[in-house]
Task: structure prediction
Amino acid sequence: MRRMIVGLAALSVAAVTAGAYAVEDPIFTRKSLMDANGAAAGAGGAMLKGEEPFHAAVAKSVFQTMHAVAYSYGDYFPAGSDTGKTKASPKIWEDSAGFAAALQKFQQDTDAALAADVKDIDAFKAAFGQVTSNCKACHDKYKLSD
Amino acid sequence: MLRRLAAIVLAILVVAAGLVWYLTAPKPLAASELPAHQPDLANGQLIFYVGGCTSCHAAEEAKGAERLRLGGGMELKTDFGTFRVPNISPDKETGIGGWSTLDFANALLRGVSPSGAHLYPAFPYPSYARMRIEDVLDLRAFMDTLPPVSNRVTGHDLKFPFSIRRGVGVWKLLYLSPAPVLQLANAPAPVRRGQYLVEGPGHCGECHTLRDFMGGLKKAQWLAGAPNPEGKGNIPNITPGPGGLTWSAAEIVETFKTGFTPDFDTLGGRMGKVQENLSHLADADLQAIAAYLKALPPLPDAVPKKAGAKD
Result:
């Protein structure tokens, strides 16, 4: 029990530290979130292309990752974080309502993908296609291309 | 003696001016150079998507069927001034519905308008000049099937001296040639097919290759990247050299089909539209493009990358 409390304390310290880091360096944080999103998409794509066998647990992990990104990503675009090593378009701040709407659509699509609780490759393909349609839609408007 | 010298100099100047005027004249095809040809609409559609006509000639945000409405009007803001993309829909009044097949072939292969004037190479005819004339005729037949759009587009707004159309004749003397860029005559068939698609209708070099001060492509730096002609940043090096494309041929094909890069980023900006066009191609043609890109002379980035702007 004592060990568990120490462990939990350590975890919460780590979480607080991570939180502080995220606030200090939102560009690094949002980039890391998008890297996680890309890695999840890579795992999903590999199953769809038949490079990896389909596993329901992997499918769930893919959507759960994207779900976590969808609900946290928008928090790391504070005013002033439009300059530096970033490809974030100024439109994120100029058209914040549009950016919020794009994020909300991504959130809803990950909600639906998780609710679908896919058990086979065909169901996965449909849900994955819907969720990843958000990538280009959002990048085209809110990410600089070079 | 002095007067005689002046007369000789004047004579030389007159002859030289006449020669320049002659050399810079538009050189259209003659009607007799058009082959008898039964148009192939499916091939015309393929060439339409390889050529990327809709990327510039449809409305900026066009999606789906709207991408086939080629009413023009988009503005390309460059160092030379603002080019206004013309209406190339089959509308008789404001589009190119009134053009003859010869007019159409002359625009694509010679950069010459129906009235016999030079077209500006913002329209990528220096690449289209490498096209087979049969492909041009098929393209025309396909474009005749698209909806007419009534939209009158005003002229370009260019800086001096680019505003003088005759100057394009000088430019053509230096840069316009139907010859392929690379010597690949002995390469495997897919590489040669890819070369035709990339160097000709695909006109990839128009953005991916560095230009000299006169706006001509530096062929020694072929496809090794260039500054973005429309603003900030660079167009990437797509040779297999340092800083260039590290993707496998299969990954290149997959990227063109899906719009997702191998690390699951998306192709953006103008390339996003190019990818939408390329997704209409058959696998064999995408594989040919990939085979050609892998066969390119590997070159380092023609423009050094900025210190890691990546998100």
In short: The radius of gyration of chain A is 17 Å. The interface with chain B takes residues 27, 30-31, 34, 37-39, 41-42, 45, 49, 85-88, 132, 135-136, 139-140, 143-146 of chain A (CB under 8 Å). The helical segments of chain A are 2-24, 26-48, 56-72, 91-94, 96-116, 121-142.
